[in-house]
Write a structure and sequence with these properties.
Number of helices: 18
CATH architecture of the largest domain: Orthogonal Bundle
Radius of gyration: 33 Å
Structural class: mainly alpha
Shape: extended
Largest sheet: 3 strands, antiparallel
CATH class of the largest domain: Mainly Alpha
Number of domains: 2
Length: 438
């Protein structure tokens, strides 16, 4: 027979319970320490990957803000530019400026002979160098018949070699510059005629097939015009919709359906809005393709759900006592909303609106569907002019084969990130500056 278990005394039971609780606390503390360590490791890894990404972008973009230029003593020979002696703007615009630059290069390297070598010598300059000379003379007609030193943009291959992105010591067949071209560049550098200057063209020019002539000003203007349309339409419509649904709309089946659809639209992929814009605004209404007007309308449809949801959340955060106090002193519902509730909710609503517009600024998929992927050289001057936007410009440059576009792609990414950081920083500032805590 089994012996009966001896009953534990109250003191023994207390000691045992204390030991069990103490062991459990130790396990929970160990689990908490491990969880904190895992979280810290994840944060450090995330920051490390982020720093690697930004470091890679900055390292490629740094050289884009400098451009290689070649100094030539250009003689504005009247016999070449204006042989008939008309001295009018039309004659100067149609003159043979490349011939002037070829003469200047030939004067620096008189020993160069042969058609192939001459073509290689002239290829040291960018194809847009002649336009620089033309603009200089058209701005100062008094230079006709005189000689002045001009700093002209070099070809993109020359630019890459000067920046060290082409190994001059590699085999001649592995690079696009010949040995004699490198010798010419060394002579130009020794004579003080080959230098790197700040690349103002990157910020003042539109797109180009040549990397050394390409800039972001056209895409930047397209983005600003598109955001102008988005802000003019989405802000009043989004805020008005949020106010109506939260403060005035009756609670019934129809408003429930509207709320569900607004929440669903906020999660719809952006390219679907591009297809909608292509079908409605371009094919049905016949609006101009690849214009900031259509792009703004498409992005407005995309950002409206975000602004409405953020607006309703801001209105819900206002305490009911504000409404009750206003109604208690005789204010109407309209006066209560617009004089008391809306001013208190406006910082949160503006924060949501700015974040929604920042999302629109970084979108490219819906704009590709409405033709804003087209190659646009001219700077857009209005809402109906053909234009591109900064994300699409980055996409186009990233798909180009020239090495010169690699650094410009990274530089454009930095500019886009700067705009996004400014817009998100403004949203944070508005929230911190005007937010009321209850």
């Amino acid at each position: 027979m089994n012996k009966p278990q001896e009953a534990l005394s109250p003191s023994s039971q207390g000691v045992r319970t204390h030991a069990i609780v103490k062991a459990g606390l130790a396990r929970r503390r160990s689990a908490e320490i491990r969880f904190r360590a895992y979280g810290l490791v994840c944060i450090v890894l995330g920051l490390a990957f982020l720093l690697m990404l930004f470091g890679n972008i900055i390292s490629h973009a740094a050289t884009a803000f400098q451009q290689t230029y070649v100094a030539l003593d250009v003689t504005y020979d009247e016999s070449v530019l204006d042989p008939e002696g008309k001295h009018d703007a039309e004659a100067l615009a149609a003159a043979d400026y490349p011939a002037l630059l070829k003469r200047s290069l030939q004067a620096l390297f008189p020993d160069v002979a042969g058609r192939q070598e001459k073509r290689a010598l002239y290829g040291l300059l960018s194809s847009g160098a002649a336009f620089e000379a033309q603009k200089r003379l058209q701005a100062n007609p008094g230079l006709l018949g005189k000689t002045e030193r001009l700093w002209l943009p070099a070809d993109d291959d020359v630019d890459m070699m000067v920046k060290g992105q082409i190994d001059r010591n590699s085999d001649e067949g592995d690079r696009r510059l010949k040995d004699y071209q490198i010798a010419w560049l060394d002579k130009l550098k020794a004579d003080g005629r080959l230098e790197k200057h700040f690349n103002t063209r990157f910020f003042t020019s539109g797109d180009s097939r040549e990397p050394e002539l390409a800039g972001i000003w056209g895409a930047l203007m397209g983005s600003l015009l598109t955001l102008l349309v988005v802000g003019a339409l989405s802000l009043p419509m989004g805020i008005a919709t949020a106010v109506y649904l939260e403060e005035f709309a009756p609670q019934n089946r129809w408003t429930d359906i509207i709320e569900v659809n607004i929440n669903n639209l906020a999660a719809v992929p952006s390219i679907v809005f591009g297809l909608l814009g292509l079908a409605v605004f371009i094919n049905f209404f016949g609006l101009p393709r690849s214009s900031p007007l259509v792009g703004g309308l498409v992005l407005t449809l995309m950002t409206l759900p975000v602004i409405i949801i953020a607006g309703r959340s801001a209105l819900k955060s206002v305490p009911p006592s504000i409404r009750e106090a206003a109604l208690g002193v005789g204010a109407s519902q309209m006066q209560t909303v617009f004089h008391h509730v809306l001013p208190l909710a406006m910082p949160g609503m503006l924060t949501g609106a700015i974040i929604g517009m920042a999302r629109a600024l970084g979108e490219s998929a819906p704009l590709l569907m409405i033709g804003m992927v087209a190659f646009i050289v001219d700077i857009p001057g209005g809402l109906s002019d053909p234009a591109s936007v900064l994300p699409v410009q980055i996409y186009l440059w990233a798909d180009s084969s020239e090495r010169g576009f690699v650094e410009r792609t990274s530089a454009a990414i930095l500019v886009l990130l700067a705009f996004l950081i400014v817009m998100n920083g403004l949203a944070v500032y508005l929230r911190k500056r005007y937010e009321r805590r209850w």
